[in-house]
Amino acid sequence: MTEQYQHKARKRFGQNFLHDAGVIDKILRSIRAKAEDRMLEIGPGQGALTEGLLSSGAQLDVVELDKDLVPILMQQFSAMPNFNLHQGDALKFDFTRLNAAPGSLRVVGNLPYNISTPLIFHLLQNAHLIRDMHFMLQKEVVERLAAGPGGGDWGRLSIMVQYHCRVEHLFNVGPGAFNPPPKVDSAIVRLVPHQTLPHPAKDHRVLERLVREAFNQRRKTLRNTLKALLTSDEIAEAGVDGSLRPEQLDLAAFVRLADTLTEKPVVG
Ligand code: SAM
């Protein structure tokens, strides 16, 4: 029995290890790592994806939180000159440490589902460094990421991610591909940061605040949910119908509202 099989999956680290060779291969074929690529894998676990990424010749840094997995990963991969392991929390990892050229970093991960949303937001703070991201996430989260306006999936996550990235829902993965199997379905998503933002906001922190406020009560009209930030006249000035509900607005309209708020004179 190898050391690999002695590791007991830990729930608190969101450990569901991929074991289906067909699924692993399909993910690797979607990523298409090349020798000249600069890659970062979040949560390599026992190396299910790591092995294929390294064999492409790409320079690969991995960030793994679970100290007990470090010897397992080192035993498998430390002899490879293109492998570099960081033990620690990806949510606190400073991606600029990697010295990747702007627009070069390719990020990959079968993510622990409990940290997937904060991790995506953390990565988006360094969107200018990133060429693309391929993640395994809970299927519902991928549906929210890829959603368009008008439905229940369209919300803060869809808007803030689509502000920065093009989103592609690539394929779904059932629980049987993992050990232990998770209780939910999963999916692979590709996020590609825009080289030029299609709808740049004057201040993206204002956009974040406005979107959060708007979706706090998604059943109410914009006029109501945004009451503390914009008057009905200001909403109309932004070219938005205040009687709509937040889920009916597209990204461009949210940016117009945010810009109206940014330019609003401070009273008092
Ligand atoms: N990539 C492996 C695979 O596909 O089999 C493991 C995937 S498992 C769903 C998630 C991995 O992320 C685990 O190895 C877990 O220990 C690690 N992890 C959990 N929280 C983390 C964090 N905050 N930072 C870095 N890694 C983390």
TrEMBL record:
Record-level GO cellular component terms: cytosol
Binding positions for S-adenosyl-L-methionine per the UniProt entry: 16, 18, 43, 64, 89, 110
SMART domains the UniProt entry points to: rADc
EC number: 2.1.1.182
Reaction(s) catalysed by this chain's protein: adenosine(1518)/adenosine(1519) in 16S rRNA + 4 S-adenosyl-L-methionine = N(6)-dimethyladenosine(1518)/N(6)-dimethyladenosine(1519) in 16S rRNA + 4 S-adenosyl-L-homocysteine + 4 H(+)
Keywords: Cytoplasm, Methyltransferase, RNA-binding, rRNA processing, S-adenosyl-L-methionine, Transferase
Start and end residues of each Ribosomal RNA adenine methylase transferase N-terminal domain: 23-195
SUPFAM superfamilies xref list: S-adenosyl-L-methionine-dependent methyltransferases
GO molecular function: 16S rRNA (adenine(1518)-N(6)/adenine(1519)-N(6))-dimethyltransferase activity; RNA binding
Localization terms from the record: Cytoplasm
Signal peptide: none
Enzyme class: transferase
UniProt-listed InterPro entries: KsgA/Erm, rRNA_Ade_diMease-like_C, rRNA_Ade_Mease_Trfase_CS, rRNA_Ade_methylase_Trfase_N, rRNA_adenine_dimethylase, SAM-dependent_MTases_sf
Function: Specifically dimethylates two adjacent adenosines (A1518 and A1519) in the loop of a conserved hairpin near the 3'-end of 16S rRNA in the 30S particle. May play a critical role in biogenesis of 30S subunits.
Family designation: Belongs to the class I-like SAM-binding methyltransferase superfamily. rRNA adenine N(6)-methyltransferase family. RsmA subfamily.
The protein's name in its UniProt record: Ribosomal RNA small subunit methyltransferase A
Provenance organism: Pseudomonas abietaniphila
Lineage, top ranks: Bacteria, Pseudomonadati, Pseudomonadota, Gammaproteobacteria, Pseudomonadales
